[in-house]
Structures are given as C-alpha cells and as structure tokens.
Design brief:
Length: about 190
C-alpha cells in the first residue's frame, strides 16, 4: 500500500518537473531519488513510532504493576526490590525495541547504549537484593496490629469495666451473705 502512494507521489513530482522542460532520464532519476527518500523516511518513521509505542506501553505497564505491588506488599525493602526489578525489565524491553528499530532503520552507525544496559542489570541485582532483604511476615503482623490496635484498647477498657462491675456485684453479694450468715448464727444461739 505504501508503494502505491510512493508511485503516486513520484509520478506527481515527475509531472511537475515536465513544466520545467527536464529530460526524460532526469525525470526518472529524480523520481527514483524521491521514491528512495520517501521509503527511507517511512522506514525511519515506522521504527520511531514502534519505539515510542513501546516506551508508552512500558510506562503504562510500570505504573499498573506498581499499583498492584503497593496493594499487596507492605515491607519497604520488598516494594523497593520489586520496583527495581520491574524498572530493570522495562528498561531491557525498551532497549530491545530500540535494537529492533535499528534493524528497520539500517542505523548501524549509532552505538548500542551499553551504559543503559549495564544500569538495567545493576537495577536488577539491587532489586533482587532488596526483595530478599525485606521481612514481609513481620510487616503484615505489624499492619494487622495497627489495624486492630485502637479497637483492642477500646475492647480492653470495656472488658475491664464489665469485670470490675461483676467483681463489685459479687463483693456486695458476699457482704449480704455474711450478714445473713450472722443473722442465722444469731438465731441458733
């Protein structure tokens, strides 16, 4: 489909050139040059569009994964570790897209970004180290404790009041029973 558009574009150029009284060979040469330049531009634009779309997809993926991580994990070191692992993976994905795009552009002159690749590997190792450093179980226990801490203190006060009332009620009954026992002892004599 692109070739049809290129043909149409190049034939329009050649028809415009006929106004200037250019020779037939020159028209063919100019038309072929225009076709080649347009094909090259389309190739570069395709590769650039592919790379930009990949970067966009990476950012969206990173944000959605971060939201899921923050929902489930509560330990700082685990969050930092998994975030670094995801960031590293997405950097490697972008580098892969760039490598594929270079093949489409025939852009072998540009040096591969080894610095970014090394940075992604470092992020990956830091991520694994951080993820294994965290203590998720203790964090979950702390979050459960914090969740029920206020409720616990309120219930403890209520229970204490209930037991104090029961103890006071029992003490009053004991006093009444002592008085009745004294009355019964007084009657026997």
């Amino acid at each position: 489909m692109d070739n049809d558009r290129i043909e149409t574009t190049s034939s329009e150029w050649t028809s415009d050139l006929s106004i200037w009284k250019v020779s037939k060979e020159m028209e063919i040469l100019i038309g072929q040059t225009v076709k080649d330049k347009i094909s090259e531009e389309i190739s570069v634009d395709k590769a650039s569009l592919f790379t930009v779309f990949g970067i966009f997809a990476s950012i969206v993926t990173f944000v959605s994964v971060e939201i899921q991580i923050l929902k489930v994990i509560c330990d700082f070191w685990n969050i930092a570790g998994f975030s670094m692992i995801v960031l590293s993976s997405l950097l490697m994905f972008i580098l892969l897209l760039d490598y594929i795009g270079r093949g489409w552009r025939d852009d072998s002159k540009v040096k591969f970004p080894w610095e970014i690749w090394i940075l992604a590997i470092i992020f990956l190792f830091i991520g694994f180290a951080s993820a294994f450093k965290g203590d998720e179980e203790q964090c979950r226990d702390n979050s459960i404790y914090q969740k029920y801490q206020e409720d616990f203190y309120e219930k403890q006060i209520k229970i204490k009041k209930i037991f104090e009332d029961k103890i006071e009620n029992l003490e009053q009954k004991i006093e009444k029973n002592k008085i009745e026992i004294e009355k019964i002892k007084g009657m026997k004599k």
